[in-house]
Design goal:
Elements (H helix, E strand, L loop, with lengths): L5 H8 L17 E6 L4 E6 L12 H10 L6 E6 L12 H6 L4
Parallel strand pairs: 2-3
Antiparallel strand pairs: 1-2
Length: about 100
């Protein structure tokens, strides 16, 4: 079994969307880190746009499921953090264009 790549995990994360904002979690800047061990363990550090986000209980589970669907990932762990606080500055140019923020 080959080791999963960060690119493959990133592509999987781009299929997970915040239900309140029509942009994927990766381009929204909610993913703070992707760590992959040699034995197929993936650890994702992420945040939410707001600590009181109504999908706070669902979003990490969706991220975990998407990452575990990547070839070579045996297990995914999602760490939800709120430091540093998320800001619009973390968004990709594509996300800002999609939301009309340019």
């Amino acid at each position: 079994m080959k080791k999963p790549t960060e690119k493959a995990i990133t592509e999987a994360l781009q299929n997970v969307h915040d239900p309140e904002i029509p942009v994927n979690v990766y381009d929204l800047g909610l993913i703070y880190g992707i760590d992959i061990s040699d034995d197929g363990e993936a650890e994702i550090t992420m945040t939410l746009t707001n600590p009181n986000c109504p999908v706070a209980d669902k979003m990490p589970a969706e991220v975990k499921k998407a990452v575990e669907g990547v070839e070579g990932v045996k297990h995914a762990k999602v760490n939800l953090v709120f430091e540093p606080q998320w800001t619009k500055d973390r968004m990709s140019e594509a996300a800002m264009l999609e939301l009309g923020l340019f």
